[in-house]
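New to this. Please check this fold:
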Amino acid sequence: MHFITGGAFNGKRAWVKNTYQVNEHDGWISAYENELLPLDLTKIDQDLLIFEGIEIWLKTLTEQFDLNECRAFFNRCLDHWLAWEKSKVVQQLVLIGTDITKGIVPLEKENRVWRDLTGWAYQDIAAKSDRVDVIWYGLSKTIK
């Protein structure tokens, strides 16, 4: 699994397109296009899957579950995704998530919960990923 993160509008999508030589129609599932959190990957016939907008799917989870349930549910998703990736040597999963954890702590409780969950989820993703890149201003830095 490859995790790409960085600030909003910092070139993550363009970097992934260039790095993997794909367009947004090649196994690209985006929360920004109102696509649902992918749960069952067995019906997808692609070797490369790119999930974009992890933070949006996490926000949706906070509207349905408490913080601990959200993190547990998301970790089960990660485990299912990793099982899909490992089921064939050629399969690759790329996760793209905007870093919303920096800056001023939000005043609204629901936004603080979302920010906390996103930080923890990104730690979980990074721990389970083979590679992690941070993209700032279109430039990548591999941190794992």
